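Journal club side-thread
Mid-discussion, someone asked how the predicted structure for our own chain would compare to the paper's figures. Pasting it here so we can look after the session.
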Amino acid sequence: MTHAAPAPRTPTAATRTAAASAKLAIPALGGIVYGFWTSGIDRHSGPITGWNVLLGVVSAVLFAVVAQGIHTVAPRLPREARALTWAVFAGISFGFLYSLTDASILKSSGISLVIAAGVFAVVFYRYYTTEESTTRR
């Protein structure tokens, strides 16, 4: 017995709006979490001050803007450059957070490089296994 194939669904305006808002929500939520985390580490279990709040807000905004920029630009990059972009972003983000704990610059840089290498390996593997290559026929 054969069945008719379902008709292809064309995206509606509501679907496109939901997808666009999700693309904005992910970096925004990441920025909020990063900002709270930054201000919490900077407090060193002390009282909340205006500088803690300012650092958290500035960090959150910068994190969200850079993440949104990478989300916008990355699909146009080759997989190696895209993976490297995300790795650099993750390494710098983690390194800044770790440096707030009063760790040495050498330790902070070393751990950031390890994080960046791990992110590069995972993201490159994901792009390599899920993208269709333009050279294959």
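Post-session note: The CA atoms of residues 45 and 110 lie 26 Å apart.
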